[in-house]
Amino acid sequence: MDNNSNKDIMNKMKLNKLFKRVIGILSLNIYPSNPKSVIEKSFLMPIEAVWSISGSSMVVATGKIEQGTVKIGDEVEAVGFGKCLKTTIAGIEMSRKEVTDAQAGDNVGLLLEGIKKEEIEYGMVLSK
Hints:
alpha+beta, 2 domains, 8-stranded antiparallel beta sheet, Elongation Factor Tu (Ef-tu), domain 3, 39% strand, 20% helix, rod-shaped, two-stranded antiparallel sheet
């Protein structure tokens, strides 16, 4: 064998070794996975205002849904100020229209049953 063919073989071996390293690095999951979108996270809505419906035991809590989704019939908790109260979504209103569900980014009024106006207040959070 001549000197040039030995150099070619050595260069091919080096390239092959480099190629294997690159493939090995690429096969590792070194990139973080995509973060969950705010809609995929669990429901969270800070309460901005509370209204009572006269003649009814239901309360309306308004606010902007920060993450997740909610639909009529979902059980949620009102949390804050040392309280943790369970309630059920009886209705959802958005832009003065009744809807069956809402998601992150929506400003909504949630009709809550089984809870009194005096029990919840501004600053509490509704969550699943």
